[in-house]
Amino acid sequence: MAELAAAPRVWGGRARLLAWLQEYGVYASVLALLLFNVVFTPHFLEVANFRTQLIQVAPVVITSLGMALVIGTEGIDLSVGAVMALASAMVVLYLGYGAPVAIVAALIAGAAAGAAGGALVAHVGVQPIVATLALLVGVRGVANVLVPQLTEFRNPTLITLGSRSVLGLPLVVIVAAVLTVLVAFLIKRTIFGRQLVAVGGNRAASRLSGLPVRRVLVTVYVISGLLAAVAGVLATSRLQASDPTSLGLLMELSAITAVVVGGTPLTGGRVRVLGTVMGALLIQLLQATLIKHNLPQSWTQMVQAVIILAAVYAARGRRA
Amino acid sequence: MTTTTTTAADADPGTDARCGPGMSRRERIGHLLQHHGALMVLAVTVVVGALVFDSFATPQNAANIVVSSSFLAIVAIGMTFVIISGGVDLSVGSSFVLAGVLAAYGSRYGLLVALLLPLSVCGAIGLVQGLIVARTGMAPFIVTLAGLLGMRGLMLAVSDEGANTYLVQNDAFSALGQASFLGLTVPVWITLGLALLGGVLLQRTGFGQNVYAIGGSEEAAVLMGVPVTRVKVLVYLISGLLAGLAGALNAARLSSGVTILGAGMELDVIAAVVIGGTLLTGGSGGLIGTMAGVLLLGVIQSLINQIGVLTSSFQQVVSGAFLALVVVAQRILHRAQRLS
Prior knowledge:
- Chain B: Residues 1-21 are annotated as: Disordered.
- Chain B: One of its GO terms (cellular component) is plasma membrane.
- Chain B: It comes from Micromonospora sicca.
- Chain B: This is ATPase.
- The structure holds two protein chains of two kinds.
- By secondary structure, chain A is mainly alpha-helical.
- Chain A has helices spanning 2-5, 13-40, 47-72, 80-94, 99-124, 128-146, 156-163, 171-189, 191-201, 203-208, 213-239, 251-261, 273-292, 297-319, and strands at residues 151-152, 165-166, 169-170, 241-242.
- In chain A, the strands form two sheets. In chain A, strands 1-4 form a two-stranded antiparallel sheet.
- Chain B contains 14 helices and two strands.
- Chain B has helices at residues 8-11, 25-52, 59-84, 92-106, 111-136, 140-158, 171-178, 186-204, 206-216, 218-223, 228-254, 265-275, 287-307, 313-339, and strands at residues 180-181, 184-185.
- Chain B has a domain at 72-288.
- Chain B is globular and about 60 Å long.
- In chain B, helix 12 (265-275) runs parallel beside helix 14.
- The chains are: A mainly alpha, B mainly alpha.
- Chains A and B meet through helix 1, helix 6, helix 12 and helix 14 of A and helix 5, helix 6, helix 10, helix 12 and helix 14 of B.
């Protein structure tokens, strides 16, 4: 539909502005918000504050990375929040066998959920939005059945993972940073990355030129499930508790917002990893700014809505 | 999401209503399953439920299922229009909650305000979403996602960040959600009326045919001279209005504007529509299927309650599995039809 309505247009000043906004808008916005806070928000430049912001944004960044890959293939993964809850439930269930086993079980569950979604999309040809919608409903149900109520636990390894710092940086943040570099490497430097972008850009052409389209699609959803599971494990470790009813609720919306605001087009064929991280940071900063200036939560959501629309509108200008 | 492989069957407006001669037996079975599959499964589930559980097939339980399904059904009617036109409306859950809060707030100024305030706000937001989708060509999914967030924010702003639950202070308005007529509450009768009206609108009017045409192939619809922009705007307006109405009626039933119910409702609604045989690619489907889909979700919930030991989380598992099953079956039918 996007292609249809966006008639060919001359690259005038407006189109160029939109293109610039899509490319650098997210960086400019983050910078502007940072500057605003440095000037107007008391105690903003303190280390403790930065730490809190980074710890809070880490799970969003990790799930957004997976979402960015899926959106790069012209897909969408609505199940990431539910997969976080499932991973959290698995951690609690398998904690008796030790933290490593619990974490591996959580990651396997996440990958399996991703594989199910990927198989529906790649092999059956179900639209990504429906396939992952079914997963969202079903997977959260499974998580709730496995762990029916809020369960607290104390495990030294998970406390370390969730709350310790190395060289002043929280482990959670380091994990997010490492995963960002890995995903960036995957996209820029590997054959799989090339194939992913090709499949998202033009699936028919990719198939005709012999790319393993189905395998690429399944792999992408598996990666998204894995990353969501990592985010779920980290969130659970930090809380020292698992609550599958609420953990990761609406995470899919935050992740999609981060990706879209970061300049990755919903039409696929392009993945912007750093932009996605910046998108997640922008939303986090925005929330923090509004809270620090005593503006309520309701404002954040309304501003977020406007930012999404603006980001997609700018992307549309670029497509034309 | 926007690139759809459109088959000739999809593009022909209102194909689903006709199952004419000249079709092979296989095609006919495919059509039947696609469009009445949900109804058949519903019938089978009800019969099995009645045989297995003594307390399932009682008039009281049937009334319970119908009453609790009616709100989802009203929203699903609007969603069916949107999905047939090739779009999707993720904002209905937020719209439902916002309408409930606005209706409860407005009820202190009388029945008329309690109804008109939510309807006008939700209708207006639906209209704006429709305008953005139709005029800018942005993906409906993302526009209504923004709508979801915006309306949730608006709801929080109206209700003091969710802390303030307005109580309904108007007996006439409460009666709208609670009073019974011939054994069923008023919302059920409203649902029936709206489903009938929607069915006529979809199958028997030019507007309905245009909705199918746009969903089947927007390009072809433009070339045929269908007023695409107007139809799209109307479709999202209808969806917003119905979500608003359902939210207001729910507030009347509960006598308060509850701020937490209804989040995530959009997913149940989409699931019901898809289970009912309406394809998310647009251009095909209908309201009978949607109603069957809504009732099926209600019956599954009721059966799980009957089993007793199972928690309501099982309903999510079953709904999710069922949705997956339905879409896989639809794809297989779709392929079979194309091959034959």
